[in-house]
Design a protein that fits this description.
The complex is a heterodimer of chains A (200) and B (591). Helices cover 36% and strands 4% of the residues of chain A. Chain A has 200 residues and is mostly helical. Chain A has a domain at 33-92. In chain A, strand 1 and strand 2 (123-126) form a beta hairpin. Chain A is rod-shaped. With 591 residues, chain B is of the alpha+beta class. Chain B folds into two domains: 52-235, Penicillin-binding protein 2a (Domain 2), CATH 3.90.1310; 241-574, Beta-lactamase (3-Layer(aba) Sandwich), CATH 3.40.710. In chain B, 34% of the residues lie in helices and 23% in strands. In chain B, strands 2, 3, 6, 7, 12, 20 and 21 form a seven-stranded mixed β-sheet that branches. In chain B, strands 14-13-25-24-23 form a five-stranded antiparallel β-sheet, sandwiched between helices. A three-stranded antiparallel β-sheet of chain B has the order 1-10-11. In chain B, helix 3 packs across helix 4. The longest helix of chain B has 33 residues, at 4-36. Classes of the chains: A mainly alpha (200), B alpha+beta (591). Chains A and B meet through helix 2 and helix 3 of A and strand 3, helix 5, helix 9 and helix 19 of B.
Chain lengths: 200, 591
């Protein structure tokens, strides 16, 4: 119980004030115990601040979620493009297509006599013989190893025939730099030595 | 008079009572929702919001020894439609900006043009489905549409057209190794390695759920993956796709030329028994299975035993030399005719009368009667044991789908004629793979490396399973194997096919075979011709076996010789095998 006595009871009810009403003067402790407006304002402001932050946070978060979704959708599209391109590349890469294109460009496989030029010492191994007409694998005989995926893939037409070419017109075709072997090893070569294919 | 204190207390009590009633009402409701009907409600809400979806894992690729993709996993799209919503719709014309009405027929026609379908059939299907069930929500317009096609359909913006992404398979190399790889049907793998090693290739589908709002829109960020999809393992083969292509092209060309019924070509690396190529003709393009007759969908290399004929003499002579029953220079007389049992005689392809051959001469000239004479030196059990040791009569270590064991006559019940003819490859049967394995053994100094097609299955987690068997097994002594290979060299240098078998710069050893075909109870005019051999003979690296079944225009082994040479040349080039240096030894053939 408070050390201060309660207001004296009973109070006269609805008695018309005949004189200025009496008022108990609050003690110091009472005044101190009274709630202060500053606290209330601070609390309410705090609550609003928290709510506002939460709102902003959730806006940012949901915006992030939408961005993630958009990016994921974009990734799916890009994955699909990658798949389409890889698929096409694999088809172009098939032996049938490479051989048919090579022969349409005038290359011939020698199926008669294998011979190697050893670039390490410049010697020729085997008995080289020129590939004659008709020694190519296809050589106009048609590809007998079917691939329905190649049905719509046109052959590369050599530049002389007026078709598309890797070499822009007007520029004389220059041979590739020496050392670019089909084996394609790009390891550093000892100075003065010719690149030598890795014999498997 | 009621005191102020009592009134206050009463009011308080009333409030307390009201509060207690409200509170207990809430508690009852809470218990009802959280405990009594919890499960049912949770399910209901889940079902209303969250939609389960399947995450498809990618089926593993099948790749050759250098990583060339033979079977590839891709995604295709099923274009679907919700029949009950099919109606004319309005959209903004992209060119003019006007709102135009698109009729159902127009929409169908535009979809059909992209997916190469029949718009009328599409419409009738939808109408039929609607007639059956007016609330029908799902019908296929087109299945397995490519991503390009799908994107075009999507751009049409038809509101009642939907799509489903489904995993599919493509074989970028077409018929190359189609006989080995096999293919998938609508119900999964059908044949070949796709079927045999499905455990490796198969992906495990995952599960995920996402939540969706009342308007059916997927809520962002609500996808919950319950179980991740596990991609299938990559299957690594020993095959070299380029050599395989070359072999297929070569046998296809020659088989057509000589009117053969079927053809096989096998390339094996001598050192480890790895199959570099196993070609079949005719064969399947796994992208277009219907374009091939059902009997040509598999691989005859493994599933088609035939009486191999004289190529088996190499095994007989290896057995003779290994058991000490004969040496290269043993002198015998190969009679004109050799009688086995009453009424049965053996003769040679070319009648040379009684000929004085050395053992090497018998093998080099492929004399049946000479082989019969020398075979007398081996007991029936020995003949059986050697053939079995070389791997005949049981499937190879490849274990191909539907692989046949071939047959070797049982020594306890074999008749006197077959007991002799089996020594030159008649009355027994073998697959091309088994013949290739025999020559690998001889070329490898008598040590058989298990024939291998699959080097491993690389799983998604990095582990490698399905490793090949690796225990080589000695079958015959080194010198016995060496002597057979040396004699086979003479077939190339001195035989009647010299011009067609010689590869300049290389010592080649080869053995021919022209086998009769047992059909309808008798040996008729049909032949199976084979050339099997290895190069370089001084240090054998690769074995090539080329076989043609039932050629029409050329029924001798000369039919197979040019193909043998071109495939062998290509193999020597591809693997950069250095040419031979030492000259071939000379062995007397007659006396």
């Amino acid at each position: 119980m408070s050390a201060v006595p309660l207001t004296p009871a009973p109070r006269p009810r609805r008695a018309a004030p005949s004189r200025p009403p009496l008022e108990a003067v609050a003690t110091r402790t009472q005044r101190r115990a009274r709630p202060r407006a500053a606290y209330a304002i601070a609390t309410v402001a705090g609550v609003f601040a928290i709510l506002l932050t939460q709102l902003l946070l959730s806006i940012v978060l949901s915006e992030g979620a939408y961005r993630i979704t958009a990016l994921e959708a974009q990734r799916i599209e890009l994955d699909r493009t990658a798949q389409v391109l890889t698929e096409r590349l694999n088809v172009f890469d098939s032996a049938q297509n490479v051989a048919a294109n090579a022969e349409s460009l005038g290359m011939v496989v020698s199926t008669v006599s294998p011979a190697f030029l050893l670039l390490s010492d410049g010697t020729v191994q085997g008995s080289p013989m020129p590939a004659g007409a008709g020694t190519g694998v296809l050589d106009g005989r048609g590809d007998l190893v079917g691939n329905v995926l190649l049905a719509d893939v046109p052959l590369v037409i050599p530049a002389a025939a007026g078709g598309a070419s890797a070499v822009p017109s007007g520029v004389p075709p220059t041979p590739l730099s020496s050392g670019s072997l089909p084996s394609g090893s790009s390891t550093a070569l000892p100075s003065g030595a010719l690149p030598s294919p890795v014999t498997r | 008079m009621v005191t102020v204190e009592r009134r206050t207390r009463r009011r308080l009590a009333a409030w307390m009572l009201i509060f207690a009633i409200v509170l207990s009402a809430f508690v009852v409701r809470l218990v009802d929702i959280q405990v009594v009907r919890a499960e049912q409600l949770a399910q209901e809400s889940e079902a209303r919001r969250s939609i389960p979806t399947t995450i498809y894992g990618a089926r593993g690729d099948i790749v050759d020894a250098r990583g060339v993709v033979l079977a590839d996993s891709v995604f295709r799209y099923d274009i679907t439609v919700s029949p009950r919503f099919v109606a004319d719709f309005r959209r903004t014309d992209p060119d003019t900006g006007d709102r135009v009405t698109v009729t159902v027929a127009e929409a169908m026609a535009s979809v059909a043009a992209i997916v190469e379908g029949d718009p009328i059939a599409m419409l009738t299907d939808i109408q039929a489905q609607l007639a059956e069930n007016p609330q029908d929500d799902h019908a296929y317009l087109a299945r397995g549409v490519t991503p390009e096609g799908f994107e075009q359909v999507r751009e049409l913006g038809i509101p009642w057209v939907y799509w489903e992404r489904i995993p599919a398979r493509t074989y970028p190399n077409g018929q190359i190794a189609g006989n080995l790889v096999g293919f998938l049907g609508t119900d999964g793998p059908q044949t070949g390695l796709e079927y045999r090693l499905n455990d490796c290739l198969q992906a495990t589908d995952g599960q995920a759920t996402y939540e969706r709002g009342a308007d059916g829109v997927k809520l962002p960020g609500t996808t919950v993956v319950a179980q991740d999809a596990v991609d299938g393992g990559t299957l690594h083969l020993t095959i070299d796709a380029d050599v395989q292509w070359f072999a297929q092209q070569a046998i296809a060309e020659r088989a057509t030329e000589i009117g053969a019924e079927w053809a096989t070509a096998v390339v094996v690396r001598v050192s480890d028994g790895y199959l570099i190529a196993a070609a079949d003709w005719p064969t399947v393009d796994p992208n277009n299975v219907n374009g091939t007759a059902p009997e040509n969908l598999g691989s005859r290399v493994f599933t088609w035993p035939y009486e191999p004929g004289s190529t088996m003499k190499s095994a007989t002579f290896a057995a003779l030399f290994d058991s000490g029953a004969a040496t290269l220079t043993d002198e015998i007389i190969a009679p004109r005719r050799y009688s086995t049992i009453a009424g049965f005689q053996i003769g040679d392809a070319v009648d040379t009368g009684d000929t004085r051959y050395t053992a090497a001469g018998v093998l080099m000239n492929s004399s049946n009667t000479g082989t019969a004479v020398l075979s007398e030196r081996l007991s029936l059990q020995q003949r059986y044991d050697y053939l079995q040791a070389f791997g005949f009569g049981e499937p190879t270590d490849v274990g191909f789908l539907g692989e046949e064991p071939g047959s070797v006559p049982d020594p306890s019940s074999v008749d006197g004629h077959t007991a002799v003819t089996q020594m030159f490859g008649q009355g027994m049967s073998a697959t091309s793979a088994q013949v290739a394995s025999l020559y690998q053994t001889l070329a490898n100094g008598g040590v058989r490396a298990p024939l291998t097609l699959v080097t491993g299955c690389e799983r998604a987690d990095g582990t490698v399973t399905n490793l090949p068997p690796s225990e080589p097994k000695r079958i015959v002594g080194e010198s016995a194997a060496r002597d057979v290979i040396s004699t086979m060299e003479l077939v190339v240098t001195q035989g009647y096919l010299t011009s067609q078998l010689t590869i300049p710069g290389y010592r080649v050893a080869a053995k021919t075979g022209t086998a009769e075909v047992y059909e309808n109870g008798a040996y008729g005019r049909e032949r199976i011709v084979t050339v099997a051999g290895t190069a370089p003979a001084d240090n054998p690296q690769f074995v090539v076996v080329v076989t043609y079944g039932k050629p029409d225009t050329m029924r001798v082994s000369a039919a197979a010789a040019p193909t043998f040479r071109s495939i062998m040349t290509q193999v020597l080039k591809t693997f950069r095998v250095p040419p031979s240096t030492a000259p071939a030894p000379s062995i007397p053939l007659t006396w």
